[in-house]
TrEMBL record, chain A:
UniProt organism field: Marinobacter guineae
Name of the protein: Urea ABC transporter permease subunit UrtB
Entry membrane topology: Multi-pass membrane protein
Subcellular location: Cell inner membrane
GO BP of this protein: amino acid transport
Gene that encodes the chain: urtB
Keywords: Amino-acid transport, Cell membrane, Membrane, Transmembrane, Transmembrane helix, Transport
Transmembrane portions of the chain: 20-40, 52-71, 77-97, 158-178, 212-233, 239-263, 275-296
GO cellular component, one term: plasma membrane
Assigned protein family: Belongs to the binding-protein-dependent transport system permease family. LivHM subfamily.
Alphabetized GO MF terms: transmembrane transporter activity
Automatic annotation (TrEMBL), chain B:
Main location: membrane
Keyword match Transmembrane: yes
Pfam families in alphabetical order: BPD_transp_2
Localization, UniProt: Cell inner membrane
Record protein name field: Urea ABC transporter permease subunit UrtC
Transmembrane residue ranges: 15-33, 45-67, 123-146, 153-172, 202-221, 242-261, 267-284, 291-313, 325-349
Organism: Marinobacter guineae
Key word Membrane present: yes
NCBIfam families for this protein: urea_trans_UrtC (TIGR03408)
Region feature (Disordered): 371-399
Its membrane topology: Multi-pass membrane protein
Amino acid sequence: MFDGYTSSELMSIFAMQGFAGLSLFSVFVLMALGLTIIFGQMGVINMAHGEFMILGAYTTYLTSGFFQSYLPGLFGGYFFVAMILAFLVCAALGALVEWLMIRHLYHRPLDTLLATWGLSLIMQQAYRSIFGAREVGVELPEWMLGAFQVTDLVELPINGLFVMIIALSIAVGLYLLMYRSGYGKKVRAVVQNRPMAEAVGINSAGIDRATFALGCGIAGVAGAAFTMIGSTGPSSGQAYIVDTFLVVVFGGAQSLIGTIVSAFGISQAQSTMEFFLSGSMAKVLTLLFVIGILMLRPEGLMALKVRR
Amino acid sequence: MKTSSPMKWFVSREGLYYLGLAALLVVILPLILDPFRLNMVGKYLTYAFVAIGLVMCWGKAGILSLGQGVFFGLGGYCMAMFLKLEASTPEATAIQSTPGIPDFMDWNQLTELPWFWEPFHSFSFTLLAVIGVPVLLAFVIGLAMFTRRVGGVYFAIITQAIAAVLTILIIGQQGFTGGVNGITDLQTLKGWDIRTDEARNILYFVCVGMLFLVLFVARFVQNSKLGRILVAMNAQETRVRFSGYDVAAFKIFVFCLAAAFAGVGGAMFTLIVGFMSPSFIGIVGSIEMVIFCALGGRLSILGAVYGALLVNAAKSGFSESFPELWPFAMGALFIGVVLAFPNGMAGLYQTYVMPLEDKIFKRKKVEAVAAAEPEATKPVAKKTDDYDPMIDSYSPEKS
């Protein structure tokens, strides 16, 4: 498939597609981070994760509308308000869902998968009834328009760059939270050995709820960031969910670094192959490759060693 | 479970359940429904094949596959390829630039039949492929996963990804597969027009017949020693392994069995509906198949049939009158079944209806004992002959 390209052309193609893949990378990281802490913590696969993300996106859409009509002077900064709101809304809903549904199903991980799928159907249809089936977009503040010219072939849109910065700062923040805070220590204790963690007085049910809410909150922020690079429709979340699961599983559940590495690998592979093959074949090959690796190494790239 | 004679089995409690289903499908529904509705019931029943497979695979052995649509689709596509080739004779396709190949290939500038379409000229090969292709794929997946001890949620996610891959592949390679429209405009099966009302009625009864065949195979497996091992494996995998059983082999077997059922269902689907398209087999379709099984009762093969019928009937009913409410109902169904009734309708039936039946049956049993002397002298032993759709109370899966 490389026939007919000189090596310098190939280099620029790789660079160009590499940068194009970065926006896919940001979406993967943003979605996968929330998913991975929920999965790592409780072994629960949250099928409604995409819908939580879309909830964040709609929150951003509403906030931008509010700022446009009532606070036009502050429009440049609405995104930061929206991000916080998206986090709070999604985290609150996440905590509610955990309390109503997930906590009854901790011993049946496969059943949570089905129950959260049901939730995702309900949420999608709710969006469709409230916001309509059409995709909505937000108006970007002025400072986010335009692009950086890196070389004459490669230019980086500022909004894409901004989303990537958000993705990476959330990743860093999450790392600090998990590995440098008391809460993180408790979470890791529960992950490694739940009965022992309970025995030393950690409220594991509380940790579960907080973690689920946190994961959903991050999904909300992801949704807010998502509005910056694409429009939002009721089923936008579902479009990414399978890829995101694979990112999480491929990276090794419970491993933040693994998640980021696998998000990077998958998005870059897909984006690079898209240039040479059709988009659908690129996706098929990427997915098959990931499935193949998972068959050889089921625990994922960077698995936490846990005694089971 | 031993039945001394087929006749006796039919008057046993389990036999009556099967007779009840047969009466519903063979007598009652054909009498009260017009051909169009009956055809729709036939379509729902093809999903029941998948649901029965899921009972064996998920309910009994604890392997949740979110990619059963893949096998359903492969079976369906195999059948559709045969029918399409039969419909694409050089005479019928004379206006194409390449006569004799399916119309969508001509639209996509293909000039000859792809190699993997060639064998589907033969009907016997097609029948073989309807079961063989899904089983082969299931075997490969199972071999790769179960021998590496991939299970639980990981297996579910990977099967879901495989469903995504197959859908993308079918949609992307439209020259070879008909793309997003699927393989349409199927007309005859060995010269027999499948589109007439009469043909559809016959196909409905063929489908019911196949369904019972599959039910009996599933029942045989479930009541054999093999079935007990599957259940044991679900509850205590390590213990079964330490007892000397090759857990992976049993898992591969039951996964292949479920795939074979799904393949047969897919082929019947193509015949009954008259086309096959990727929309039935993707991620959403595959996960809906799980709810048929879950609603009916994940441990009951008969429940799976009723589950598939009910969910699909409800879906058509809702979609006709309140299309926007259906996703809410479906979502509530997923959550409700999982949270409140993990054993589905069969579980409810067992808890609430069976005690009533017991009262009635007890009275009858006295007469039966009197009639069928020496064998039925011990009512305690007789008890084990009673059909128990649960076999085992629900056991939580290990993480």
